[in-house]
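User: Could you go from structure to sequence for me? I need the amino acid at each position, not a summary. Structure tokens:
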């Protein structure tokens, strides 16, 4: 019984830490107009308030996962929470665009440290397929709800106090999460730095990702000419250098063997399209509600509440049962179809739209995200051996953050290109184009799911009993 309680406490801590970090990734979206007014951001610079966070997060995840192997996962988790909390305070005290963007990068670095070890710890703590499915559903629940709930809290805090408080609230939350982690998470012994860390690989993948997103963001100002092509080629060269480094390094940051499993690389491709569509949707729908429908920040956040509620109910009470009965692939495709239907509805939102008619059905259908993430996470981790759990977790989280960053950058650029002015009508036309692009990404995810992912996967290797006892006893 003590073991069950210890594992439940560990899962609760990991979910709470993930909730705080993912919530912070979305909490800024409804506060962006207020930040723009107060700090003097340009439209292109404003996207870096979001992208600065997710790019640092996504680019450092693989290196952070390796660091967890070297010094111990609990130590890395606690260190990440500490960095994240300190950076949140810096964000809340920011007095200019440069300070805020730099602090958001630091937040992303802290989030990478704590998130990189989460899925790996769950995979180890819950080796049986049925209990792992339930644990992953709970973990996905926190992510799905955090993404939607962040917009609700962001609106309320921005209107009631100011946008600064969407960051300052993390100070007490971060302190509580760090103390709980020391109490409940297993104190694993790391391999030691003598085992090696691929710092060069981390630099290559981080810089390549950042340059790739910058390439997309700057197209709004410079178009798709020689400059953009040169930047894109530089990004691809850095990513190519990372892949070459993984082939030749004695201790690679991401051993390429972990991608041999069809469901591992397939799930990551699906997730890339999914998160690009979903994060782009969050930014675009918030801008549509505020710039076209003239909602304030609180109204925008509350308008997103049905999506948060639908995600909560589906991911916590429905997804695990459906996955057990029908398999993760069928549940994944169903959830993606619901999300696609929601994006197609958005392509027709009018300038004088009404919430009950034009937005509420979209929010309810967005509950399909609660089906997608548990199924996708299970597929992505299904082929991971215990020795590779941390690396596979890092790859999965990296794809998630890269997809989010690229989605925000690409759909923002598409919306700007599709708008021929600043009137409500012109902005709506631009948002329509962005919503069509999001629908295309989700359709691609459905095609990939049907053609690449396997219907069933072999059960993961069990953890040896002595190792499992050591993990749970702490």
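Assistant: Here is the amino acid at each position, in order:
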């Amino acid at each position: 019984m003590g073991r069950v309680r210890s594992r439940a406490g560990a899962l609760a801590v990991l979910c709470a830490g993930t909730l705080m970090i993912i919530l912070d990734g979305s909490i800024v979206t409804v506060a962006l107009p207020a930040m723009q007014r107060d700090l003097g951001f340009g439209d292109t610079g404003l996207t870096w308030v979001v992208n600065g966070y997710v790019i640092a997060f996504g680019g450092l995840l693989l290196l952070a996962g390796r660091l967890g192997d070297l010094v111990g996962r609990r130590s890395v988790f606690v260190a990440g929470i500490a960095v994240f909390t300190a950076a949140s305070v810096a964000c809340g005290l920011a007095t200019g665009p440069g300070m805020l963007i730099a602090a958001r990068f630091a937040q992303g670095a802290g989030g990478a440290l704590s998130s990189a070890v989460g899925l790996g710890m769950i995979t180890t703590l819950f080796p049986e397929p049925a209990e792992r499915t339930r644990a992953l559903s709970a973990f996905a629940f926190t992510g799905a709800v955090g993404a939607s709930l962040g917009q609700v809290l962001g609106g309320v805090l921005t209107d009631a106090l100011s946008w600064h408080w969407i960051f300052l609230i993390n100070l007490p939350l971060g302190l509580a999460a760090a103390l709980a982690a020391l109490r409940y998470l297993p104190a694993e012994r790391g391999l030691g730095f003598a085992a090696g860390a691929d710092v060069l690989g981390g630099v290559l993948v981080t810089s390549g990702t950042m340059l790739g997103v910058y390439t997309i963001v700057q197209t709004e100002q410079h178009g798709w000419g020689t400059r953009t092509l040169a930047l894109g080629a530089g990004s691809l060269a850095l990513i190519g250098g990372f892949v070459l480094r993984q082939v030749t390094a004695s201790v690679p940051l991401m051993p390429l063997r972990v991608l041999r499993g069809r469901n591992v690389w397939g799930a990551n491709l699906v997730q890339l399209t999914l998160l690009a569509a979903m994060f782009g949707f969050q930014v675009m729908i918030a801008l549509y509600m505020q710039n076209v429908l003239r909602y304030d920040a609180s109204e925008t956040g509350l308008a997103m509440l049905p999506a948060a509620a639908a995600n909560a109910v589906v991911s916590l009470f429905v997804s695990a049962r459906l996955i057990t009965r029908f398999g993760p692939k069928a549940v994944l495709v169903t959830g993606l179809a619901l999300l696609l239907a929601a994006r197609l509805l958005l392509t027709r939102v009018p300038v004088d739209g009404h919430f009950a008619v034009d937005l509420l059905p979209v929010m309810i259908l967005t509950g399909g995200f609660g089906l997608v993430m548990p199924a996708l996470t299970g597929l992505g981790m299904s082929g991971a051996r215990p020795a590779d759990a941390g690396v596979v977790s890092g790859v999965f989280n990296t794809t998630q953050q890269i997809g989010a960053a690229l989605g925000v950058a690409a759909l923002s650029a598409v919306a700007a290109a599709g708008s021929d002015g600043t009137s409500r009508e012109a902005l709506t036309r631009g948002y329509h184009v962005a919503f069509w692009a999001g629908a295309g990404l989700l359709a691609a995810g459905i095609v990939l799911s049907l053609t690449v992912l396997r219907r069933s996967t072999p059960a993961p290797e069990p953890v040896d009993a002595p190792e499992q006892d050591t993990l749970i006893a702490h």
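One structural detail worth keeping in mind: Residues 1-5, 457-474 have pLDDT under 50 and may be disordered.
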